């Protein structure tokens, strides 16, 4: 899936064949049909569920502004043949609150006009801030050409196995058996049990240094902004906007049960938290790991211990510069390329912060929670 987001135009940008303009509510059926055609290989009208999801995703953000949202290319005959999805999100950039946007799915008919116009509209102006954490190699080239700055390390995904044979069986089922496991996990269990006896776990941090506690959404809304406040560039995460993101992320049940856990130290103080899709017996997909500065290793160890104890065969999440030291202490952990992460802005202080890795994006401040990546088949 090629993932990008446009620099939204002010008004319409006409060409001889059509025009780039903001998405309208009346466009949703056509956009949903185009999504099915491009990404699901089905040229048919979309059902109400997909249309409702696209409407909520693209038009109902608390920070919605048509100049920051999804852009479409409408041909002169009225047909929509190219679309760049966007979700407005407010950010803090070096002390200034910025109207930002998550760059999302780019889709275009193979024979359609408009793709070039939409991509050219990505070029940032002085006060713009946009970001993407799911760019394909082709999208990466486009973003670099128009001044995008890659976020160090964040193109990588980590995978931490707790039951390596079970994790491998899950990957085989996912890739070759369309998710049907056919008894593979049952066959893997005795081998994993033997491996865990032969190679007992050696914790990366003292087991009693922190504990994991269930975290209500209301508590998360209070603490999440505090736990990213040390980053120069970070999501603002005002209560209304973060609550809206959580509600959308919780709909992605194909990945598991949406869950939030806090990590508390011996005194009971919250030093971090993590947001993930719980799927005991399968993979835990971790969206966000939030931590106070210099407590990342303790938070990571507590999280991995919890995910192991709750029966997951592995956990996966996005790498970030601040997590690398703690991740390097873990056994049975590997990295692989996931997708490119970029920031698009002409503000030099933000580009400097990105270059040194002083930026927080991903998870709820990204696209991994979107049902468009996993659902509507």
Offer a quick outline of the entry.
The protein has helices spanning 28-39, 48-59, 115-120, 137-145, 164-176, 184-198, 217-227, 239-249, 296-309, 324-327, 348-355; strands at 13-14, 18-22, 71-75, 80-93, 96-108, 129-135, 149-150, 156-161, 210-214, 233-235, 257-265, 270-278, 283-291, 314-318, 333-337, 340-345.
Characterization of the model:
This protein has 377 residues and is of the alpha+beta class. Mean pLDDT is 88; it is low at 1-14. The chain has helices spanning 28-39, 48-59, 115-120, 137-145, 164-176, 184-198, 217-227, 239-249, 296-309, 324-327, 348-355, and strands at 13-14, 18-22, 71-75, 80-93, 96-108, 129-135, 149-150, 156-161, 210-214, 233-235, 257-265, 270-278, 283-291, 314-318, 333-337, 340-345. The strands form two sheets. Strands 1, 2, 3, 4, 5, 6, 7, 10 and 16 form a nine-stranded mixed β-sheet that branches. Strands 9-11-12-13-14-8-15 form a seven-stranded mixed β-sheet. It has eleven helices and 16 strands. It is globular and about 65 Å long. Helix 3 (115-120) links the parallel strand 5 (96-108) and strand 6 (129-135).
């Amino acid at each position: 899936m090629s993932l990008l987001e446009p620099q939204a135009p002010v008004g319409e940008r006409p060409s001889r064949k059509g025009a780039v303009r903001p998405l309208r509510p009346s466009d949703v059926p056509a956009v949903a049909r185009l999504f099915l055609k491009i990404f699901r290989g089905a040229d048919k009208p979309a059902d109400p569920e997909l249309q409702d999801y696209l409407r909520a995703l693209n038009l109902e953000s608390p920070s919605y502004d048509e100049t920051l949202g999804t852009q479409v290319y409408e041909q002169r005959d009225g047909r929509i043949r190219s679309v760049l999805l966007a979700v407005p999100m407010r950010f803090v950039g070096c002390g200034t609150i910025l109207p930002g946007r998550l760059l999302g799915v780019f889709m275009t008919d193979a024979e359609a006009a408009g793709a070039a116009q939409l991509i050219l509209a990505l070029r940032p102006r002085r006060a713009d801030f946009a970001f993407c954490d799911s760019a394909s190699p082709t999208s990466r080239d486009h973003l670099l050409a128009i001044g995008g700055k890659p976020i160090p390390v964040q193109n990588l995904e980590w995978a931490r196995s707790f039951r390596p044979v079970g994790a491998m069986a899950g990957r085989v089922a996912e890739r070759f058996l369309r998710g049907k496991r056919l008894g593979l996990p049952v066959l893997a269990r005795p081998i994993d049990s033997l491996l865990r006896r032969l190679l007992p776990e050696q914790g990366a941090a003292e087991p009693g240094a922190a504990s994991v506690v269930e975290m209500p959404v209301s508590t998360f809304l209070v603490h999440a902004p505090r736990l990213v406040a040390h980053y120069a560039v970070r999501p603002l995460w005002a209560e209304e906007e973060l609550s809206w993101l959580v509600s959308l992320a919780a709909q992605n049940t194909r990945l598991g049960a949406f869950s939030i856990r806090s990590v508390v130290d011996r005194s009971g103080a919250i030093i971090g938290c993590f947001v993930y899709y719980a799927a005991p017996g399968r993979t835990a997909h971790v969206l966000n790991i939030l931590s106070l500065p210099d407590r990342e290793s303790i938070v990571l160890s507590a999280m991995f211990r919890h995910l192991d104890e709750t029966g997951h065969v592995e956990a996966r999440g996005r790498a970030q510069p601040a997590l690398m030291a703690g991740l390097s202490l873990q056994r049975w952990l590997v990295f692989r390329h996931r997708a490119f992460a970029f920031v698009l802005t002409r503000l030099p202080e933000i580009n400097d912060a990105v270059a040194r890795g002083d930026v927080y994006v991903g998870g709820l401040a990204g696209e991994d929670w979107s049902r468009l990546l996993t659902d509507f088949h």
